[in-house]
C-alpha cells in the first residue's frame, strides 16, 4: 500500500508535534510526504501535479493542526482546486474512488473539551463532518482519524510516543474494515484447514 501524507501546517518548524510526525513519516518506506506550505507558500497550486500524486497512492493522510474547528486555509484551497468536477466528482469524476482517506490532527485542547457539554460543544467526529462528507462525495473510504490532544502542552516523551502511534496508524492496512474482515476470513480459513489436517 502506498501512502501519501499531505501536510498543511503554516508554521511546522515551530510545531513540536507535527514536525515530529513529519520526520517519522519521512523515515517510512511506501510513504510519500508532501508539505503544502513548503511547496505552495508563495505560488499557485499545480493541480496536475497534485492529481498525479493522488493517483499514485492508495491512502491519503491529511495532516494538520486544528484551526478554528477546521484545517489551515491552504488545505481548503487545495481541496477547492484539486478535487475538480469531472475528475474527483460529478459525471466521470471517479479518479479517487476506492482510495482511503485518513485525518491526522493535532489539537491544543484536552479531549474532554471536545464533547457535548464540553468547552468546544462538539466532538472531533462532529467537527470533521465536512471532511467525511468530502470523502464520500469523491468516493473515498473515510477511515478512523489519528488525533493528538493537548499538543501544545505535551512532553518530549509523549511526543515520541505520539509519533510512534501516528506511524502505526497511518501505515496500518487494517484501518480499512474491509481489509480487516478479509484478513479475519483468511485466518479463519487457515485455522480451519490446520484443524482438518
UniProtKB/TrEMBL annotation:
Segments forming domain Flavodoxin-like fold: 1-156
Keyword check for Oxidoreductase: yes
Gene Ontology MF annotations: electron transfer activity; FMN binding; NAD(P)H dehydrogenase (quinone) activity
Keywords for the protein's UniProt record, in alphabetical order: Oxidoreductase
Matches recorded under InterPro entries: Flavodoxin_fold, Flavoprotein-like_sf, KefG/KefF
Record-given protein name: Flavodoxin-like fold family protein
Organism the protein comes from: Priestia megaterium (strain ATCC 12872 / QMB1551) (Bacillus megaterium)
